[in-house]
Amino acid sequence: MTEPLVVIGGDAAGMSAASKTKRDDPDREVIVFEKGEWVSYGACGLPYYVKGDIESLEDLVSVPAESFVEERGIDLRTNHEVTSIDTEARTVTVAGPDGEFEQSYGDLLVATGARAVEPPFEGMGLDGVFTLHDMEMAASVRRALGLDAPGSRQEGDGPRGDASADGAPESVAIVGGGYIGIEMAEAFREHDLDVHVFEMLPHTLQPFGAEAAATVEEHLVEQGVDLHLDTAVDGFVGDERVEAVAVGDEEVPVDLVLVGVGVRPNVELAEAAGIETGPTGAIATDQYGRTNVDHVYAAGDVAEATNAVTGEPDHVPLALTANRAGRAIGATLGGEPTPVGEIVGTAVVKAFDLEVARAGLVDEAEAREAGFDPVSITIEAESRAHYYPGGSSIQVTMLGDRGTGRLLGASMVGREGVAKRIDTVATALHTELSVERVSMLDLSYAPPFSPVWDPVLTAAKVLAGKLE
Amino acid sequence: MTEPLVVIGGDAAGMSAASKTKRDDPDREVIVFEKGEWVSYGACGLPYYVKGDIESLEDLVSVPAESFVEERGIDLRTNHEVTSIDTEARTVTVAGPDGEFEQSYGDLLVATGARAVEPPFEGMGLDGVFTLHDMEMAASVRRALGLDAPGSRQEGDGPRGDASADGAPESVAIVGGGYIGIEMAEAFREHDLDVHVFEMLPHTLQPFGAEAAATVEEHLVEQGVDLHLDTAVDGFVGDERVEAVAVGDEEVPVDLVLVGVGVRPNVELAEAAGIETGPTGAIATDQYGRTNVDHVYAAGDVAEATNAVTGEPDHVPLALTANRAGRAIGATLGGEPTPVGEIVGTAVVKAFDLEVARAGLVDEAEAREAGFDPVSITIEAESRAHYYPGGSSIQVTMLGDRGTGRLLGASMVGREGVAKRIDTVATALHTELSVERVSMLDLSYAPPFSPVWDPVLTAAKVLAGKLE
């Protein structure tokens, strides 16, 4: 009999692979080891849980753990941590509630995800300093705000949780102006906190490019956010609880700190077993999600994916990539070799009243590094017909390659119609369309939804003119 | 010296071509003859003018007539009707306010547009019976509703205008359940009229397919529209004013009638001059917008375009196609041969609170006629992450070709996020992507804007499974 598929990590990639394998090959034994309590949850919803838009942590769960077990026949074991992999013997060592044991595998999927980077700041261990890397940490942040934390499976607070002996906090420092930082700024403003955002680079939202970021930053200030760009944080000051952020000679007094300076793939377990990482530091995989070791796959936030624009390995830890790769690996294991698919770095974030989106290469320097000769333009266009009420402006930055005329990428920012407009760009990038061809796409028009020339078409038209 | 470019028709295609020609070749003389009063206006906005969302007809004008003359150097002559074309002598005969004259041309663009079909119903000539084919007719409809008609350049009413001697009308029959019919239903409901929609086919919105239409129809009924499907109108009853719609043995009493049963290209002038029409009845053109006659181009609602899905000539009279073709012909005349571009039949319409969109082939019978072996699916997906508040359902119908696996088209309907989601499908159609590849596109995801698997991806995934 075939040895089981063993999956390490019970979130998007892991549970997608487990489910698809069981669906396509119901006789295959599938065991998932998840070191935490929660499986298959939407971590992207955590800022909205803190904000109060989402009632309970339970709402973020896509598929309840029982369903995986009872309906899909998956042997799902939460609170089980895989501590080592022996790729020769094809076994993993597992630490569970009842002690340590070995489990053999026929195939192994490493889906250990990523974790929030914890920079070596002084004072990272103070009470009131948080990252936002999992469900219970989001619950702790709510408790720290003096709010209830519905759905939390832990009593009381996390290690740094307790905040409110001195009453509800009035101010918060967010360290890092990325997605999480911006989304959490919105959440904290909702609870009327004074919000400071510290970003060491000249702009927030680095992957979205300077043009989109500048527009977002104006909006953040309008929303009452105290923005500290080009500002490196040195550490946090306080006795037991955080009291201030140290920045050079200055101290900015705050009641809470949220550190969101990026994520790092959890590769240590795999690396210790001889599974290779790629240039990005995440696990290197081929088009079927296979690692360098026979019968070992990797998917999700721990793994690289191929960027269709550059043709190079890339690490963009996002939910769709994880789900897609997990499902493809499941199909492959079920008997039908299925590529995990390429990415083009598509992303969108809500920044208060703005939608900010990107795909491909949006920064000239980055495009040059990837071997292109980039030309870029930034335009403003309307979201609706000029005469139709309620429209607003959409800013589009678009890059093309001078040599080939190829579309390289775009960013967009506006109050409406941005999130899904970027998908036109993403689709064009997957098929390596020229900017000229993009400018001639037959895109939808009706007065309530678009000008006759969609902003994407207008941007492509202007860029094509510059590429001639 | 080169003879002038003469353009017949001063709307989207004509003015785009005139403007682009002058921009790229400022020394070229460009003369535009427009038989009406208005040039370069957004006819798509007329239903919203009647509804009251748009204040004045003037707001619908994209570029004021003076700007074409003064800033762009175009010799624009309104109230000038071209009555014949002599393609041998390269002249047109023009009837203007000061009499008839001949004008020679070096190149000629036929951009005579389309007109509302006036079916041979008894009673079409009664007062209170309207089509909605131009600016002044929209003004007449407003007057017929007892409303002011800001921006109208005609005194009083059109030939069938006067309605309100007996007070404001209380009911209206819309004959034809196409775009205009649905948009006008919304406009009339806004003014609290009882609205009857008569459609002779089993469904409204024929180009959007039965699945989308059925969902729209439920919504129309919720909005208080009295829907008469599969119901052929026989004519209109009344003495001078319309009093009822005759349907078989029945008469449905109404105060007003709006006939919107489609448009027909204004090809008569061209045909009389030996300019050939194609299989759709519109003027046949090549990829540069050239007709069968040397130095004669056609563009806009009067001309065919090539459908990228079928590879065949098609007639989808929409604003973007007209603008694009006009601009391309201008560029070609300016010295740079530029294709007018292909269409994929992308369209979107607002139906009260719904967005309804389509691209490609959305009907199995139509796809079979075009030589494909269609397989279709219809799914429901969410517009946002399942846990994010405010989301709603999006229904996607998608067609693929069994033989090649190629995507053939899709329709979508929902309360949000539909209008621009169809552009992903449109872009994929332009590049002849397989359904499988569509299912692997890297589309944007964030909880407020989409589920992890965008509805387009989910539809493609399900359809790909059925195509295997």
TrEMBL record, chains A, B:
Residues 348-451 form the Pyridine nucleotide-disulphide oxidoreductase dimerisation domain. Keywords: FAD, Flavoprotein, Oxidoreductase, Redox-active center. Its cofactor is FAD. The keyword Flavoprotein applies. InterPro entries: FAD-bd_OxRdtase, FAD/NAD-bd_sf, FAD/NAD-binding_dom, FAD/NAD-linked_Rdtase_dimer_sf, Pyr_nucl-diS_OxRdtase_dimer. The keyword Flavoprotein applies. Residues 148-168 are annotated as: Disordered. GO terms for molecular function: oxidoreductase activity. Residues 5-319 form the FAD/NAD(P)-binding domain. Belongs to the class-III pyridine nucleotide-disulfide oxidoreductase family. This is FAD-dependent oxidoreductase.
